[in-house]
Amino acid sequence: MMLKSSWKEKGFVDEPIPEGIDLKAEIRRMAKEKNAVIMAHYYVSGEIQDLADFVGDSLALAQQAAKTDADIIVMCGVHFMGETNKILCPDKTVLVPDLNATCSLAESCEAGEFEKFVKAHPDYTVISYVNTTAATKAVTDVVVTSGNARQIVESLPKDEKIIFGPDQNLGGYINSITGRSMLLWNGACHVHEKFSLEKILALKQEHPQAKILVHPECKGPVVRVADKVGSTAALLKFAISDDATEFIVATESGILHEMQKRCPEKTFIPAPPNDSTCACNECNYMKLVTMEKLYNCLRYEWPVVEVDPEIAERAIRPINRMLEISARLGL
Ligand code: 13P
Ligand code: SF4
To answer: Is 131 a pocket residue for ligand 1 (Cβ < 6 Å)?
Structure first.
């Protein structure tokens, strides 16, 4: 198929959607016809989560990719998630609806700079958060997600010297709960850093019975007022099983869709960011994934995710190590 220059320039297929079609039904029809699996992260829009074959956190998405027998994986999420899938499934076609959907954490850790840092500390074990590019994973010993970081760090000997990158907030939180003193790279997620402690405390005054759910990519002061700190999947699980009926949620607001769906009788209040009058906090990268781009991506089988084979060969080791430790620990 000829790639149009406008697609390449834009990073997604910009063909008009045929008039009058039922987008959702057409996407499902093409997925079946092409033996494609549609995977979605909790931060993409609710309508995409609803039509996906599988919705999950970063850990579950990687675990699912590792065992899929589909020919095509459509990753409705950000680019590093597509790269992880491609590294795990080199013979499959991996698609992302928009190549511009990157991640501020992945961008805060340029592989060459990180490698210099790693080389300057030759006796350190290198842990990288999954929110990194394939090239950064290639200079890593073990990958973690927010769903298994604590357990993976604790599985290493107590006196092991560790570099943790790129999220300094997640790394600082893991240091605080494990008593380790990992060396931290100074990256951050621009969405999670924006939550306002003052606004969360004001919401808590208005809703004194509400429990505060916080993703560990948030800054320390926000994490410290949490009733539950965890990955998106862990926060969802807590919301389902806990007795509370009101929750203040300090993570990307896409997760509220599944929370509300699973707990229709409970109230979920998005925690607001510090820099606007907006009530909720969205990841502009995740929200680049739209139904129209998903439709075109399946129809034209582009954008494909490519990973340099030499980088993939090195990056698969720390990803597999994460999956093996997680399986051993029942995560
Ligand atoms: P989890 O899905 O692991 O909670 O991570 C959140 C995130 O920021 C994904 O980009
Ligand atoms: Fe990256 Fe933050 Fe967006 Fe997650 S929410 S994809 S960490 S920028």
So the answer is: yes
Neighbours of 265 (CB within 10 A): 6
**Would you say the CB of residue 230 lies under 6 angstroms from ligand 1?**
no
Question: Residue 169 C-alpha to ligand 2 middle, in angstroms?
Answer: 13
CB 124 within 8 A of CB 183: yes
Could you tell me the two tokens for 54?
A: 């599988």
Q: Which residue's CA is the closest to the ligand 1 atom numbered 3?
A: 58
Predicted TM-score (pTM) of the model is 0.96
User: Does 63 contact ligand 1 (Cβ within 6 A)?
Assistant: no
In this predicted model, what pLDDT tens digit does every residue of 64-123 receive, in sequence order? 999 999 999 999 999 999 999 999 999 999 999 999 999 999 999 999 999 999 999 999
User: Can you spell out the DSSP letters for 174-221?
Assistant: HHHHHT---EE--B--TTGGGB-HHHHHHHHHHSTTPEEEE-TTS-HH
What's CA 206's distance to the chain center, in Å?
31
With a 6 Å cutoff on the Cβ, whether 232 touches ligand 1 is: yes
78 C-alpha to ligand 2 centroid (Å): 8
Tell me which H or E stretch contains 116.
helix 111-119
